[in-house]
Amino acid sequence: MSKQNIPHNFSFSGDRKLQSEVIVQKNGLHQLDQLGVFDGIRKESKHLIITDKNVEELYLRPVLESIERSGRSVRTLVMPASESSKSFLWYAQLVQKALDYGFDKHSVIFSLGGGVVNNLAGFLASTLYRGIGKPKRVKVS
Length: 141
Hints:
The protein has about 140 residues and is α/β, with parallel strands linked by helices. The chain contains three helices and six strands; from the N terminus they run E-E-E-H-E-H-E-H-E. The protein has helices at about 55-70, 90-100, 115-125, and strands at about 10-15, 20-25, 45-50, 75-80, 110, 135-140. The strands form two sheets. A four-stranded parallel β-sheet has the order 4-3-5-6. A two-stranded antiparallel ribbon has the order 1-2. The longest helix is centred in the middle third of the chain and has 17 residues, at about 55-70.
């Protein structure tokens, strides 16, 4: 493995309750399963990817392939790439899709995109079943 292909992990913490790990890896979206992104996520639960139309076209396929290789069941919801998507209407659609799909307390939301997608995914995760655990954010910018 050449030096430029070695994953770089960075951990940030503001206090004991708030921690975030960042992995920087060339072609990392194709290797999420090998990088341990899915460790600790139940295979028996249903999971959801939330993304927007712009990000879908560029990055969804490798993320889906990584999740499927890990043996987890996942569905995708694609929203318009617009600040106006940050609305109660979209939130209600996300709730309905998650419940129809069979989400449980151990389900994970993968947020693939930027601010609007991350905001809605985080709000959904915090309100379903009084919180289903923190969403996995896959930043592409």
